[in-house]
Prior knowledge:
- The complex is a heterodimer.
- By secondary structure, chain A is α/β, with parallel strands linked by helices.
- Chain A has helices at residues 69-76, 100-103, 123-133, 141-151, 158-161, 170-183, 200-217, 228-234, 252-257, 262-270, 309-313, 352-359, and strands spanning 17-31, 40-54, 58-62, 84-89, 92-93, 106-109, 188-192, 220-225, 237-242, 245-251, 318-322, 325-328.
- Chain B is an alpha/beta fold.
- Chain B has a domain at 39-66 and 100-325: MetI-like fold.
- Helix content of chain B is 44%, strand content 11%.
- Chain B has helices spanning 20-28, 35-57, 111-147, 149-164, 167-177, 185-212, 215-223, 227-263, 280-289, 298-326, 329-342, 370-376, 426-433, 471-477, 499-510, 516-529, 546-558, 576-593, 604-610, 628-633, 638-644, 732-735; strands spanning 73-75, 89-91, 382-393, 400-411, 415-419, 441-452, 462-465, 482-486, 564-568, 596-601, 613-618, 621-627, 695-696, 703-704.
- In chain B, strand 11 (613-618) and strand 12 form a beta hairpin.
Amino acid sequence: MNLESAPTPTSVAPVRAVLEGRGLTKSFWVKQGRSLLARKTRVHAVEDVSVRLDAGRVTALVGESGAGKTTVARLLAKIIRADAGELFLDGRPAPPGRPRSYAAQVQMVFQDPFASLNPVHRVGHNLVRPLQIHHIADGDIDATVADLLRRVALKPPDTFIGKFPHELSGGQRQRVAIARGLAVRPRVLIADEPVSMLDVSIRLGVLNLLADLRDREKLAILYVTHDIASARYLADTIVVMYAGQLVEAAPSVSLTDRPAHPYTQLLLAAAPDPDRVEAPALAGRGAPPSLLAPPSGCRFHPRCPYVMEICKSQVPPRVAVAADHSAACWLHVDPNNRRITVNGSVAPARDSSDQRNQER
Amino acid sequence: MTINSTSLTVIPPVAGPTPELVLRRTRILRLPRSPKVIAGLVILVLFGLLAIIGRWIAPYSPNATDQQHWVQHVLVPGTGAATGFPASYYPLPLPPSAAHWLGTTVFAQDVWSQLLAATQATVVVGLLAAAIATVLSVLFGVTAGYLGGGADEGLSLIANVFLAIPGLPLLIVLADYVPSAGSSVVLVASIIAVTTWAYTSRTLRAQTLSLRNRDFVEASRVMGEGRLRIILVEVLPNLVPIVAASFLFTALSAIGAYVAIAFLGLAGSPTSSPPGLWNWGEMLREGFANNAVRGGWWWWWAPPGLCIALLGTGLALLNFGIDEFINPRLRTAGLSRKTARKAGIGTRPKLGMTPVAHHPPVAVASVRTVAEASRLRDTAEPVLEIRGLSVDYGYDEEAVHAVVDCDLVLRRGQVLGLAGESGSGKTTLALAAIRLLRAPALISAGQVLFHSKPISGDGPAGTIDMLSATDDQLRAIRWSEIAVVLQSSLNALNPVITIGAQFDDLLRVHRPALAESARWARSGALLDMVGMNADRLRSYPHELSGGMRQRAMIAMAIALEPQVMILDEPTTALDVVTQREILQELIGLRDRIGFATLFITHDLSLLVELADEIAVMYAGRLMERAPATSLFHAPRLPYTYALLHCFPPMHGPRVPMEGLKGSPPDMRDLPPGCAFHPRCQWALPRCRQEVPRLAPLNGSPREVACWLHREGTTVPPELAQPEPASMRPRRPETVGQAGGT
Lengths: 360, 741
């Protein structure tokens, strides 16, 4: 595993986008109230999100709960259908519906390994089925299954094939789930919070496994997480979502070291960090907005410490603040009243306590 | 969120290894081997046997009359010569004899033969009807549940129509409409099945609906699995217990229905043409019609009646067994109480009172004297002292030792962090100390002292022994002096009354002197302290976000100005920004009110920022205790060292990290010696045999339970880093930026 070699400038070798979602939009309809005639209202879960997964790269999707991360993951896996936007597989539009040819390319690992493995089936069943469905393994299914288990470091494989999920620990279950995803030899692996249900001590093992798969098998991986520290550790690119929209995207180190969007700055300030000397000041307290009636303009503007008039009315465009680093924020756009600082980050201007008092 | 340690309370494994071959079947429906189930099975098998071999062991044909003995008649009272009415006679059935084991009917038919024939028909009709109904309900219910949408609406409508039609009247109409039905088992069974399938279908539909969106079904879909296979292979096996339970239930009601229509005379008489079938209902009907009860001819009506009751009991007992299988909690309570009694431990099942073993507490070697303990640390006054505390789940040989011999001292104004993986016993330790765990948790040894010095209110003062305290004493302490906020606390608010009303209840009970307006003002002030607008008092819990509800819970916890706050993963379910905000509020409150905090979390990186002192638990034992900064910069325990290297840093170059090898320990089967040795990179031979005890490291106010730090061993350089410059625990005023308040 080599973490440092991956995020090199794109000019060295053209990176191939294996799976790309452009302008993905998804709303859900929920009933307000209990009566028969209750009106259905729209939850704007994901709006105009474009993500690109490259071969041999891990892209992390970071955000709070309700930000729409999982919805994007499920859109990419074609578990749900987008209201608008397109999916491109190898630059060509993805086939409609959910054909097996798509399943053979794009696989998903779910958050809860205690729920994603059927309790009545053995580990073997979980790995044999994908091989049978997609006619892989050419007869020697046992050897392929054993090889899969070895690839996810469940050794020796023979001891695991016959086991039921309840006989495995959380980390082992998640490895089985990953092996199941790998069985069809996909080129894209979508991992939805793969470690958040696991014990701290075994999280790194699973993350390292994903890094290993990226490096050795050139998998394109989408790593959905709320833990920005693990995203920094694993991912080559981090994409930050807030209230259903994309707010910032950059190579992971440059995003965590020089966050450009005020929300990313808030997220980083709030993350636990034992190296921190003083308690962090949080600029932008409060909670994410309701997606039933999201704020106009930039959805972060009610919390934003640097809010301007234009933020309240107009959706900010995505602008490049550095090479490979884009943010959707008016602070980085309008040259008339705001200057963009050299490194792309915004100097904190106001005392955070003002903001808090206003909020009360 | 990680899996909670309370999963430990799950029943201990069934003794003895299960052979691999039968595992598959037993996994799907492993009935508990309780006397109930065995009795049910015995009854069912008995009736099954009778139904099968009945026709061969029956001594007579059920319709045949015993002409030879059918001579006895009895004069009907009020008739005969003296009365002027022509004499009329009751036929008299024969009592049980060698020729007729169960006697005869008035028509001199053999009751035993009739009973055998009737058993066959009744059991077959019951099982067949249940089978047909189950197939129908699975077809309709599972299809509707899995497909959803229009298919669901259509199929559910059909089921609902059948559900709305009253079963027995429909049955009577149908049975009456098809007069020949009584002669055919299949027809009777079908008629009964048609009237009973809908109820089960609803249940199965609901279950399928919830299964359909489960991750493993979704995973199969992502895999490209076909719809039929998903239903048959992924969904249906998970429904087996429910299908089995509903099969038994339907069999029971089908037998009831068959007996009922036969008793009403609607199943066709066995002597008419076409002949109906002998069944228990028919036997009862004939008996009742011919004065069997008034005549005292018990051998005629009692056997079919008993059969109905017995078979019903058998089916119900089996159903209980399946219920317990579906919901194991039904079983654990009873089982553990029994073992507890056997073990001689009095455990009244009482909410919120952890039982304490009544045999004299074991003198624990490592219990230090107070003098010794205070020499170890700085002199802040202790408020909660836990000494040598051990907690078991279950009793005797089935006991799981969740907490073993733990010493912990919480001092006034201090934030003491308790870190460990899930299942390491950290929650058990804290909750047992204030005796909030329920049986089968049992405090098997130790002592917990609460040095109370109420900040406000009229709570008890002085030292209280928590383990010998009475209900009343504990009630006076809990919440007002020791408050608890759990990860799930945000769901502990009453959903049907406003936040304000809940504050009001609390203050009215504990601060009776306050007037209503003062209570309201105080509630508003409390919300303000946790960063919520006082207007929120008028809100219902469901109108607040998770973070807001957890804040409201914290406000309630501090409402009575407790001396100790026990926070068990209070922010784990919340987002990072909310978590940070709440933690800042908490530290500010701590500075203002001065409570001591026991902060339990698996997130060591958070604790390092927050706590003054950190205790690390592994497999139920305290393994290291040190001021937060020294623990972070100079860990002495291999486990702490490894755990600290499980959190990727937020700064600097990215370097590969190894994390921890192996899996968290199985509390039911701990390795000998130090429980961490299988995952320890520096394990010594001694670690595999002897359990290390927590002991002070020379010359420092910290303790570690590790053989590497004992005489005669070389400490690896990673575990011998110099202590950081500032060894003092951070003082409250420097810890919390009080969040602007």
